[in-house]
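Hi L.,

As promised, GB1/RHD3-type G domain-containing protein:
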Amino acid sequence: MIQVFSIIYFSGYFLFCVFCSITHIGNFCITASCPLIPFWQGTYSIQIFSLAVLLSSMFIYNQMGGIDEAALDRLSLVTEMTKHIRVRASGGRSTASELGQFSPVFVWLLRDFYLDLTEDNRKITPRDYLELALRPVQGGGRDVSAKNAIRESIRALFPDRECFTLVRPVNNEKDLQRLDQLLLSNFRPEFRSGLDAFTKFVLDRTRPKQLGASTMTGPILAGLTQSFLDAINSGAVPTISSSWQSVEEAECRRAYDSAVDTYNSCFDRKKQIEEDSLREAHEDAMRKAISAFNASAVGAGLARSKFEKLLHSALRKAFEDYKRNTFLEADLQCSNRVQSMESKVRAACNHPDAKLDDVVRLLDGLLTEYESTAYGPGKWKRLATFLQQCLAGPVLDLFRRQLEHIVAERNALRLKCNSSDDKLALLRKQLEASEGHRAEYLRRYEEIINDKQKISKDYSVRITELQTKSSKLEERCMSLSSSLETAKRESNDWRSKYDHSILQQKADGSKLKSQIASLESRVSISEGRLSATREQAESAQEEASEWKRKYEVAVSEAKTALQRAAVAQERTNKKVQEREDALRAELANQLSEKEEEISRLSAKVSQTEIHATSLISRLEATEAKLKSHESDSLALKEEIRSLTDNLESIRSEVLSREKEVRILEQEKNHLQEKYLAECKKFDETDIRCKETEREARRATELADVARAEAAAAQKDKGEAQRLAMERLALIERMERQVEALERDKAKMVEEIERLHQSEKDATSKVILLENSVDEREKEIDEMLKRNNQQRSNTVQVLEGLLATEREACTEANKRAEALSLQLQATQGKLDMLQQELASVQRNETALDSKLKTSARRLRGEATESVHDMDIDDDNNGRRRKRSKSTTSPFKNNHTEDGGSVFIGEDTYTGSLQGTETEDYTKFTVQKLKQELTKHGFGAQLLQLKNPNKKDIVALYEKHVVGK
């Protein structure tokens, strides 16, 4: 975002331009400084004022002092705007309300403000002060009508208006003369706070200039301004709709040109592409052009649809022209390429040394080159005709020439073959004769060779037999001597190794036994801790769930209390309304006799209005107190009870009052003379109702502001949303009160009619009515005092209960937090214990594997040493091994033939597992839990809530035994 400020001064007006972004001139803020307009500059200033109002987003009118008739007279240009600006070209002069939809936010800035903003002994806002100043003046005459016309024009032209007051910056006169040299910190705090509020409002409420739903950019605003200036300079009245239509047409034309440029830049004409890809590129470029047109075009009327149709037709025509020209160029290029290919093929076929394989290779190369370079829809058609012409023309001629040459060569070869056959027959005869002689010589030679081979074989066999016998004897002698020596050495080595391994195995066995015993003790301790922590965790979880359930019950009770409070509030509103109706009826009866009573009725009506405004202020004050919903809900409960009791008593009073009213309606014939006074009173009440309607509108505007503030505060705090909803509920209640006032108005009209009908019958009982009214007023005052005392007492009691409830809630929250921390700590301990169990299990598996490997190694060494020893040493060694094996941790089962069978640890553990799986039903609950956690099923055990032994046995059978 780019923030650029520019200030322009013309004829007493300052134009501040704030550019929010590159594409939008965001904020136009025009400040008027109350110039004195000469009589000869009246039209010129009105035109400048009209342009300022139409082109700005915010219009700030600043003056010194308060708002009086002179200040309103300075804004008399507002009444002349309808003469110099029109909304539509037809239909005559536009009204101020029609121009109001195009007007900016109006801010009236009062500098050096010295007044105290109070009305009827209550403080009012600057906005209320502005609305009071713009209220119509009572009376008749030309001056009063002119003043009211100015006020009505300001209200109609500026429906969105605001007022700000700034006190004097400094108190010292010398400082006032050099304000530009003073620092902001030297100004008065009231001035700084007012200036901060004013600048915050200006920066927050100033938005990009809009006309309808279209946000203006720089060119749009410049075109609209130029259209207004042309109309003013030509002496015509500027028309908003006509100017906007011309601007809309110009912007659509510019969007049309930019869309065409976008299409031309996005549509790639350099590539030689086929029809499908060309159409895809056209559609892609067309989509981009249409998106560019939619991004730049303004409005949604005939101009936009017209230029959109022109854009579609222009892009379609450009694509068709380009496609036609491209395909013509492609056809020309294909024909040129085919001609060159045809000339090359013809030259290759007409070459004297031409071969069919060479022509085929040349044709393949030409086809690949043609396929990569040629394009267009007629590409393959021209290629097919070219191939047909080639096959029917030069290729066929070449084939015929080669065929004739092959036939001639075949005839010559046939003659050569016949002559070679004759020579071959002669040579065969000579070969047969020579073959006979050669076979005879070969037979004799083979016989001699066979005899020689027999003699040499016999001799060599005899020599080899003798050599093998001697070598076998020598080898046997050497092997026997070496084996004897090695056997002796190995027997000694194995004997020493066996003794050393037996000693080492005993030491390792004792160490392993001690380690296993310590690990078993640690495992049992950790299992006990684990079970204890689990029981603590389960109890903590149960307690936390109990507190959670209690908290949910308390929350539900609070919600129901809120609902009951809302219903009670509605009932109290209805009760107050009925009570006000009864009081107004009594006051009307009293005021019908005397003018003093009429004045009392008007005073009481004004008091009720003041009471309504005080109720509104009280409601606004209670918005800050509504954060503690529980206290309000409990207080409202007790208040509902008391109000229901009061409502019953008031209902009984209302019934008695209705009876009295029926009697009195027949006795009021003498009030006919005062009917005109009642009509005047009715007019005054009508005016006041209108004022209340305006206040209701102001309240709705405040509600909108409150909604915006609530939406902004929702990002930081979730509680602000609830406050906003409650504020909306209060606003709805205020709207209901306004509706109730309207109903009061209708009831008063009906009552006046009834009074007019019953005026003739009420002469004789006026004195009785006055006495009864005095007595009823005294009774009502006493009842109100008693109700107030009861409410104060109940409020104190409820505050005490609320304090105790809050203490209990805080204690419960602390307990829940402590339990959650304890659960986290126990969960961490459980994780540590599980890690220790896993490490212990890994150590046990490592020790088991180590024992198994050592046992297998010792068994292999023992068997090898036994087989290598002599028979006597073997027997002695077996006796020693049997005597020593009784102390080893491995078990040997002796067979009948004196051997031993080794039983490993696997069979032993298997037997143990069998006994364990058979006797798991005899385990205790603690033992079953330990077994489940040992096998890694602790999570499934924790999922069981309050399990008994049957549930734990079923879980053990499911996961461990596998049943």
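Residues 1-14, 16-42, 87-92, 866-918 have pLDDT under 50 and may be disordered.

Thanks again for sending the construct details.

K.
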